Amino acid sequence: MTKPTHTTTFVAMAILFNVCLIASNLFAVKLFCLFGKFTLSGAVIIFPISYIINDCLSEVYGYQKAQLVIWSGFVMNFFFVLVAQLVILLPGAPFWEGGEAFKYVFGAAPRATLASLLAFVAGSSTNAFVMSKMKVASDGKRFGLRAILSSLAGESIDSLIFVPIVFWNLGTKVILVTMACQIVAKVCYEIIVLPLTARVVKMIKSHEGIDIYDRNISYNPFKLKD
């Protein structure tokens, strides 16, 4: 019998990654104030989890496996957005009064959708790349520092792409403040759960019996296997 290419644990993490990504796009329509001063979207509650999973995947399975999951997230999110647009176009029942609310939640503007997809791929790929490179350079040590720095790099790229595209008409000051708030909030989220992340990584390595070091591999994000 041929040995499975992907383990149950890997598949479960990939599924959770995709769920977090799609859910974050839905939660993004909810805005709330942190400490009564900083405005954030509801996505900040769950989107950082995708970066935590990304760290785990890169640390345990290597860059190319992580990149495979990232592209699967892109495809699944694109599919979800496409189907949502088709459902919006369906004529509503005469007695149904939720049409506008449904469209508001699921009918993201094309610019926002494009920005979200581009920012996700660029940010997540950067996160995986930095994590992989730092693991080899540090010989697998200082996971906590690597996780924080890789997430900082990824979240920064994500915000640099997403915020200016979506909020281009709000002025430079608003854009910069929004970017800073998003980056700080997400990285702080990762720092808070870092002990749990490190423990999960250790458990997965022990369970899977694997700990990949990305030496002499291609970092082409479109190349998913050697």
Commentary on this structure:
The model has no long low-confidence stretch (mean pLDDT 85). The longest helix has 37 residues, at 172-208. This protein has seven helices and two strands, in the order H-E-E-H-H-H-H-H-H. Helix 2 (47-61) packs across helix 6 and helix 3 (63-89) packs antiparallel against helix 5 (110-137). A hairpin with a 3-residue loop joins strand 1 (31-34) and strand 2. Strands 1-2 form a two-stranded antiparallel ribbon. It is mainly alpha-helical and 226 residues long. It has a single domain (8-208), classed as Arp2/3 complex 21 kDa subunit ARPC3, CATH 1.10.1760.
CATH topology: Arp2/3 complex 21 kDa subunit ARPC3
What portion of residues is helical? over 70%
- Helix/strand order: HEEHHHHHH
Radius of gyration: 19 Å
Biggest sheet strand line-up: 1-2
Total of helices: 7
Provide the low-confidence segments as ranges. Answer: none
Summarize the structure.
With 226 residues, this protein is mostly helical.
Give short descriptive properties of this protein.
2 strands; 7 helices; single chain; two-stranded antiparallel ribbon; mainly alpha; 226 residues; Arp2/3 complex 21 kDa subunit ARPC3
Layout of helices and strands, plus pairs?
Layout: H1 8-27, E1 31-34, E2 38-41, H2 47-61, H3 63-89, H4 99-106, H5 110-137, H6 143-166, H7 172-208
Antiparallel strand pairs: 1-2
Helix pairs in contact: 1-2, 1-3, 2-3, 2-5, 2-6, 2-7, 3-4, 3-5, 5-6, 6-7
